[in-house]
Amino acid sequence: MKKTFGTFSGVFTPTTLTILGVIMYIREPWVVGNAGIMGAILILLLSVTITFATALSISTITSNVKIGAGGAFSVISQSLGLEIGGAIGIPFYLAQAIAAAMYIFGFREGLQTLLPDFSPLLLDIGVFTLVMAIAFISTSFAFKIQYVILGIIVLSLVSIYGALFVNELNFDFQWNGSYPGSKETNFKGTSFWGVFAVFFPAVTGVMAGANMSGDLTDPRKSIPRGTISSVILTTIIYFSLIFVASMLATNEELVSNYNVFIDKSLFPPIVLAGLLGATLSSALGSFVGAPRILSALGEKRIIPKGEMVSKTSKKGEPVNAMLITAIVVIAGISLRNLNTIAPLLTMFFMITYAMVNVVALIEQYLGLPSFRPSIKIPIYIPLIGALGSLTVMFIINAFVALVSLIAIFVFYFYLVKMNIKSTAGDSRSGLFTAVAEWATKKATQLNTKKEARSWRPDLLLPVLYPREIRAAFKLIESIVYPKGSLKIISLKHTDEREQQRLHEFLPLVEQKFREIKIPVSKTNVDNNNFNDALNISMQALNAAFFKPNTLLLTIDTGKPESETYNLLLNDIRKNNYGLIFYIPLVQRVWLYKKPFRYGLINCLITGKRHLIWVKMTLEYFWQYLLPRIGTAILMLI
Question: Which of 57, 58, 54, 53 is nearest to 71 (CA)?
Fold first, then answer.
């Protein structure tokens, strides 16, 4: 039986451990030394504003619907469709998996201070083996390890705060920074945004808990509570450490010594253990979370061999996805230096956060009755989160940001070509409906009647037998494609078997028209009278903005006699419709009936302002005049 997790173990702990990472221990003092107290506070506030907006956005979405496995992938897919969800989910998975290799490198660098004679590659392999073993034992065991790491981090923070009581304090605060830079650049100077780019990844762990959405007992409650509480707590910790750092050392020490918190702490070994624990927990969190994203991608058949990838063990562990992730992590470790692709991974994270905010923004803007989240936020919050995420991308590295966006578009167009089918709906139809509604209102304000120059062939097609559409399919395509539309009316049949055949046939016709990019819709009219059914349909559709303008009738022996068509001509004039008669080859004999012939001539003579198309493929009639060639008569009266 699959074990699920609650708010504290499944969301709060992994999110907190990911945010309280290596940057807090060895880079926050450097940020204070460069930017000063006010600059560091401003950097923290800007960073948290974006991530907190993202946390609120994902909270409002998950409090409205039950999201599936895959966290952000599931959120984006349920709103914007599998194509966009997959285009974001694939690079997000790769970033999450390769991030595990980066955290392993960070853990190894910490170990090398204790084991300087060991081979870095062997240490990397040893750490990876440890992380993989913990993850493969069970997710529950991994979370229990994280409890231990969380305890160590708490003790390390106590040791850092305790440093205020055992060191000579510096009260000569530098409120505004001079931005001297770092020792790697020989203190040649940096900028506010340069320091911001170094610090920002520290707060980007807001998705760590959401990635476990498929393993949570109640994700609708756990994700909002765990994520928001974690962001608030970690923000308070980062804010307080700005003042702790400024009191423990001078600006010169802060920018030149990355180990200020370790060296000046109450008990340095526990702070070093906290640093190692933070990187280990981040690696473990990435290695546990990434397979869940991959398994969700496989479940939706977005990636090849999706059924195999999404397979789980008896305990509910995505074993195949974990094995694939292990290969990806090994590939990352084999590169030995991830500095070249690290910015790209950061961009993929940022795009994911931006899209989560976009989803919340769209849902808020549409205001559909189905969107009733228990956590309500103003519409400007997801707007800030989306714009902030995209802005940060280009601040960090404009070129890499552009490359990452291009990669997302490549994934998107690839998935569009795959023609992925989803059984669940999404918000795209609501979005396009809102746009159409706005455009309709604007067009109506300009002119209550449609302009003649904006005319398009919008056909109304009454159907009694499947053969009528089969015979006229190519004609309909020629008339409607590429800018027209088609509305099919399924008329009531006296023969129940024929009625059932028609109902089974029409969905296949709809699919065929959509494959050739023709907008089509259908409905059933429960009326035995042919003339009344069409007359009522035309009258009802006149109230619609996107109404048909031309009626296409296939002359068939199964339909009423010619007197009914003559009556229908009057209704067509009253409703200001055009008319197309299509006469298939098999009806050549019936055409000779005098009542219909006279009715047709009467139509051609008196049908003013109506576009009348007559297509007759009467092989028998024309066998001496035009062998094997049909005839079309087009008249505009």
Answer: 58
